[in-house]
Amino acid sequence: MNTALLSALHEIEVDKGIPFDTVKDVLEESLLAAYENREGAVEGAEVILDRETGDLRVIKDKQDITPHDFTRIAAQVMRQTFYQRLNEVHNAQLLEEYGGRIGEIVTGIVQQAHRRMTLVDLGRVEALLPASEQVPNERYENGQRIKVYLMEIREPGRGQSLIVSRRHEGLLRGLFELEVPEIYDGLVEIKAVAREAGLRSKVAVWSREQAIDPVGACVGPRGSRVRAVVSELRNEKIDIIQWDPDPARFIAKALSPSRVREVYLDEQEKQAEVIVPDDQLSLAIGREGQNARLAVKLTDWKIDIKPESQATDFEEELEEDWEPDEYSTMHRCRAVLANGRRCANTALPGSLFCGIPSHQAQAAEFEGLVEGS
User: Fold this and answer.
1) What CA–CA distance (Å, rounded) separates 74 from 71?
2) Homologous superfamily assigned to 248-313
3) How far apart are CA 373 and CA 371, in angstroms?
4) Which element (helix H / strand E) includes 302?
5) In terms of pTM, does the model score above 0.85?
């Protein structure tokens, strides 16, 4: 009776969380492979572990053909291949478990930090943080606790690996969900995220409840919530803006902290021309174009920024004589902006107004006046 072997297998079951039947199958497969490689092996045999006694037998057609030195073979297999194959099975199970959590934020401990690859211990499985998913100005030290984004499972040369990221936009989304209860509960929604990892990010938020200020909810009391996110991202600057269904207003907000005078939209090309005060031009563009670049990513619109002094001629061209000839099907929107100027967008086919929701509201009002007259 081999109680020592049974005890070792049950200990593996508890420590690694692998079912005993799986441990038993891996051991039998390893021993069978070792038996088949020895001289004089009988073809078609199988290795059986007795669950009651712990005895190992080689069986062929229900007959015991166990070699006299099989105990030595078993000991050798236990030292060399069994634990290796067991680890492979264990990793495959864990990867399957974590595969259902792709897109989540988890906390890990840096095990080995290298220039090309960093190993992160997630508790039950180790993950790889490749150089392409690291933030350039971050340094990782052994034993350091970090939050990472579960990105994908890849199959490199030596089996599957769990890949995590520190620069993915999902990390920023997940951190806000952890810190802002309103986002977690679905009362506030993150509509869009634009991120240049380690430098600056923009987050557009929107509230499903009128009584909740989405920006205030994300900032938190005395800035505590956004400060916690900034701290985890190593002082990455974060602009939180309120999402707007009106593209012109959303684009203007996306270019904050700069002030915007006018936004002219070409909805067909999905391109916007933004007019800003001369003293706001550098702020709107940002250092090395960063602010404008993030606004483009956030809104998914092409944005051309012009100073007010250069836009004078453009505005003069958009006076009443802008309308094409009477035979043209294209007409300028008749909506009047808050500053008293007329909208520069092209009207929708069959309408006198463009597709901006507030201008469509003016269209409904205009049609009502026409019908009333």
Assistant:
1) 5
2) K homology (KH) domain (3.30.300.20)
3) 5
4) strand 302-307
5) no
